[in-house]
Amino acid sequence: MDPKRPWECADMSQVRSEIDRIDAALVDLIAERYGYVDRAWQLKMTTQEGAVVQWRIQQVIDRVKARASEKNMPPEMVDMVGAQWRNMIGWFVQYEEEKLRQAQDAKVKSGDNGSA
Ligand SMILES: C=C(O[C@@H]1C=C(C(=O)O)C=C[C@H]1O)C(=O)O
Description:
Number of strands: 0
Number of domains: 1
Number of helices: 3
Bound molecules: ligand ISJ
CATH topology: Chorismate Mutase Domain, subunit A
Order of helices and strands: HHH
Oligomer: single chain
Helix content: over 70%
Radius of gyration: 20 Å
CATH superfamily: Chorismate mutase
Shape: elongated
């Protein structure tokens, strides 16, 4: 069935179905984002770039908040969206740090000290 626009919903069960549809799509997008973060730590092993890239974190949050403003969200909601991203990025950075640490440990154990 076609998605209903908000004003087309005649009862709460229709509203809840649409919210469930949107939540599933958001989770799918976060899963897709995770795929790229997973690739990021692998590439950072060769560039020696750390998990935390402060300028990039700021850029991502600025972009997301600008987009939220363009969508006419009230300022408090723009801040809320920014906070959600900060939280998500915080988790991804920890994930990358852990992966990089594990990869480094495996390298040390295998006797590869990085010098060619
Ligand atoms: C993906 C990266 O790694 C980290 C995670 C980020 C993210 O989840 O958007 C952003 C910056 C990084 O600290 C990156 O450096 O771009």
